[in-house]
Amino acid sequence: MQCKVSHDSNVPYTIAWYFGTKKLESRIGGRVQILNDNTLQIRQARNTDVGLYTCEVISPGGNETRSAKLNVIELPHPPANVKVDLLNTLPKTVNISWSNGFDGNSPITNYIVQKRTVPSSDGYVESLIPWVTAKTNISGTQRYAILSNLKPASSYQFRMSAVNGVGEGNPSKETEVITLPPE
After folding, report:
1. Fewest CB within a 10 Å sphere: which of 28, 110, 112, 117?
2. For residues 97 and 38, which has the higher predicted lDDT (pLDDT)?
């Protein structure tokens, strides 16, 4: 963020930067620095940097302030509490539900469901079993998805990811293994 000053060369002035009401100090090599030209530089901005920044010019000729709000937009966090339930009324169909994770300061546009078929014999899930995208067009306002046409007598795991204006976030923790009944 720049703080440019037009002034008479005979009138001295100083510039101070504030984050909210806290005065910022520049540390050499720090993540937040005030450069020689009074530009405020924030490297690797993160959520804790979101807020109001104010540049204050102090001089015998008068004082002035200007402020700017910084928003950090990032990938969304994974959906939380992802659960899967068998729908008894519809064979080979499951209902996946979840709650919101942090949206990354950008609205969630859609959710993606991935599934993988797992061996049902020993209860051990091999981490090398690949994930397959099952559904991508789930509305960003929805909190459940119905997946049908699964194989009877097969065991599955599911996971979710959220998509915002930045892109697709990391997937959630996988669900417990669910085994569909035979037909």
Report:
1. 28
2. 97
